[in-house]
Amino acid sequence: MNINTEWYRIFLSVSKTKNLTKAAEQLHITQPSVSYAIKQLEQNLGIVLLKRLSKGVQLTQEGQMLAEYVEKAFHQFGAAENSIRLLKQYKMGYVRIGSNGAIIKDVILPVLDEFHIEYPDIRIQLLQAKTSVIVEHIKEGRLDVGFVYLPIKDPDIVITPLKSIGNCFVAGEKYRNYASEQLTMQQLTSLPFISLSSGSATRTMLEGWFAAYGYSIEADIELSSIDMMVEFAKRGYGVALVTKTMVQNEIASGELIELHTQQPLPMQEMCMITSRNNSLIASIFAEKFV
């Protein structure tokens, strides 16, 4: 079956005017073109749609039923075009973002605030999760854009490097006597560690850093958020590696003690990840970070 949507448009006009000539005038085409479209539609559907009368046409039962469906369909077409127009004007739609916890607070929120003010009608959906989860969600089309730490090796993901993030070791008042020292790797491994769960980008980076100097570490306390790590560190449960900008206020107020190391801590490279087929709204959001 080879159906031309133009035939439906002509048929709908005929169903409303009940006259082939009037439909032709309304559509700015010739009357034979109207007759041809109706004939083609009837042949393709295998039914009679119109009864020819002396002063016009009358819809058959099948024609009346088809006209009702066609009118609804063209209404949906109009609604779809209007929605697309609103999307292009950023008057509706959504952007789905995934990110690690520390990145949300330090990097995402300031830009998100600007975006929300500029495009108040765009709905923002945000998922805080591990890098591996965010990567899979983007590949499955469940997220539009992600903000995570390198390394990522996946040919299906587009990676845009953004900035280098500095980390530091912090602890509570209990460890103040270490503040004036430059701790050796051996000293660090003797301290209780507060860490994100195994598999997280920060945990992997930390383990790799120790391994590069021939040491291994185990976390005494494993948590799922940086905020909880900071809270446990304040209370003296151990040493935590966190993004330095995230704890500047706590260090300045004395709630946390920054611990210095003999070996320089590696920087973490933050990046933006997207799929190769990004939505228009997601692209506009992503452009604010590039």
> Helix coverage percent of residues?
40-55%
Query: What is the third-level CATH name, the topology of the largest domain?
Result: D-Maltodextrin-Binding Protein, domain 2
What's the pLDDT, averaged over the residues? 88
Contiguous runs where pLDDT drops below 50 for at least 5 residues: none
CATH superfamily of the largest domain: Periplasmic binding protein-like II
Give the C-alpha Rg: 32 Å
Terminus-to-terminus distance: 49 Å
Describe the main β-sheet briefly. Answer: 6 strands, mixed
Outline type: rod-shaped
| Gross CATH architecture of the largest domain | 3-Layer(aba) Sandwich
CATH class of the largest domain: Alpha Beta
Strand content: 15-25%
Number of strands: 13
User: Would you list the SSEs in sequence order as H and E?
Assistant: HHHEEHEHEHEEEEHEHEHEHEEH
Number of helical segments with 4 or more residues: 11
Number of domains: 3
Q: Can you list the strand order of the major beta sheet? A: 8-12-7-11-9-10
Q: Which structural class do the helices and strands define?
A: alpha/beta
Describe the structure.
The structure is a single chain. By secondary structure, the chain is of the alpha/beta class. Helix content is 45%, strand content 22%. It has helices at residues 5-17, 20-27, 31-45, 61-88, 101-118, 131-139, 185-189, 201-212, 226-234, 248-253, 280-287; strands spanning 50-53, 56-59, 94-99, 123-128, 145-149, 158-165, 167-171, 182-183, 193-196, 221-223, 239-243, 257-261, 268-274. The strands form 3 sheets. It has a 6-stranded mixed sheet, sandwiched between helices. The longest helix is centred in the N-terminal third of the chain and has 28 residues, at 61-88. The mean pLDDT is 88.
